[in-house]
Automatic annotation (TrEMBL):
PANTHER family: ATP-DEPENDENT CLP PROTEASE PROTEOLYTIC SUBUNIT, CHLOROPLASTIC ATP-DEPENDENT CLP PROTEASE PROTEOLYTIC SUBUNIT 1. The keyword Plastid applies. GO terms for molecular function: ATP-dependent peptidase activity; ATPase binding; serine-type endopeptidase activity. Pfam families: CLP_protease (PF00574). The keyword Manganese does not apply. This is ATP-dependent Clp protease proteolytic subunit. GO terms for cellular component: endopeptidase Clp complex; plastid. It comes from Burmannia oblonga. Belongs to the peptidase S14 family. SUPFAM superfamilies: ClpP/crotonase. GO terms for biological process: protein quality control for misfolded or incompletely synthesized proteins.
Length: 100
């Protein structure tokens, strides 16, 4: 599997939009085999799945279970002001994930 990053997320969002335009009546099936990745691109995928009119079925395979985790950060590399801003952003992301 491949990690979820901005590139693969953008490709999948585009594909879901394309398939929706082609036929709004056919359900979509998304097979996920990923060891994890970035939270924001993952949320983008979740958002598009909520926006399309057809049902989106997700089938998790392999390491997909590790995609459900707390968001992580690298605080030690940031100056103190950035540390505070990043902490606030992490809390917002965490709240978003708990609502999913």
């Amino acid at each position: 599997g491949q990690e979820v990053d901005s590139e693969i997320s953008n490709q999948l969002v585009g594909l879901i939009v394309y398939l929706t335009i082609e036929d709004k009546t056919k359900d979509l099936y998304l097979f996920i085999n990923s060891p994890g990745g970035w939270v924001i691109p993952g949320i983008a995928l979740f958002d598009i799945m909520q926006c399309v009119p057809q049902d989106v079925h997700t089938i998790c395979m392999g390491l997909a279970r590790v995609m459900i985790h707390q968001p992580a950060s690298s605080f030690y590399q940031a100056p103190s002001l950035e540390f505070v801003l990043e902490a606030e952003e992490l809390l917002k992301i965490r709240e978003t994930l708990t609502e999913v």
